[in-house]
Amino acid sequence: MSKTVNRSTDGRSARWSAHRAQRRARLVDAAVAAIEEHGPEVTAGQIAAVAGVARPHLYRHFDDAADLRRAVMTRALALYQAGLAPVWHPEGTPREMVRAAVDAHLEWLSTRPNLHRYALRAARDVAGERRGAHVGVADVTDPVDVTRSGIAAHVGALIQDVLRAQSLDAAIAEPLAYGLVSMVDAAATRWMDSPGGLTRDAFAGHLTDWVWSVFETAFRAGGVRIDPDAPLTIGGN
User: Could you please report the per-residue DSSP string of 107-133?
Assistant: First the structure.
């Protein structure tokens, strides 16, 4: 026997789901704004105030506080990745590519430090929750590490193209990329916490030189010299 589909009910359900998703997204936006205003130790009351709702209403669209935290962390990481256009689509000379990528990372740290710190803390919490839910730790992942690994994998593919174009061993591309991404992240995070008198522009210049020196060493080991200030095509771009 065929079943009768209640299209009216299905339509209302779809509209309610869409409304709930939109409401949830607005609350996440409010949480992001509250974090940027009050810092990574933001309270539920402060988020509710920015959202213009009573605190109990805040969790009507989330399972619990942890669900809200995960949603905000996911939004923060998405915003960060969206700001890395120079990494996803490099243009210009090698030095300009490196400097643009460095500047994009420092732009995020400098303009959204509270959201950055919140995301790091939330990612550790999420990993801890997963660790507690599993017998082993093989499946436990830190969302920030996953994001960082995704960036490194993309950079590694670009480096691989350059190395192959120069007839060099492309096997070093992956570890080289992961090392560079880790170096930039660690150095930039330390600078943000303790700038030591270095302006953002000065630090970006130093970090660009450090990154390029690693590239230069890798190329030189293969007997190739690449001019950092001459146009370079990567991956067909």
Answer: HHHHH-HHHHHHHHHHHHHHHHHHHHH
pLDDT tens digits for the chain (237 residues)? 455 556 655 666 666 677 778 889 999 999 999 999 999 999 999 999 999 999 888 888 888 888 999 999 999 999 999 999 999 999 999 999 999 999 999 999 999 999 999 998 888 877 666 666 554 444 446 788 889 999 999 999 999 999 998 888 899 999 999 999 999 999 999 999 999 999 999 999 999 999 999 999 999 988 888 899 998 755 444
Gyration radius from the chain CA atoms: 22
User: Do residues 184 and 102 touch, judged by C-beta distance below 8 A?
Assistant: yes
As given in the structure block, the two tokens for residue 64 are 């619990």
> What's the CA gap between 153 and 100, in Å, rounded?
18
Query: Over the range 139-178, which residues count as b (16 or more CB within 10 Å of their CB) and which as e?
Result: eeebbbeebbbebbebbbebbbbbbeeeebebebbbebbb
Q: CA nearest 94: which of 191, 142, 162, 3?
A: 162
Cα distance between residue 219 and residue 168, in whole Å? 8
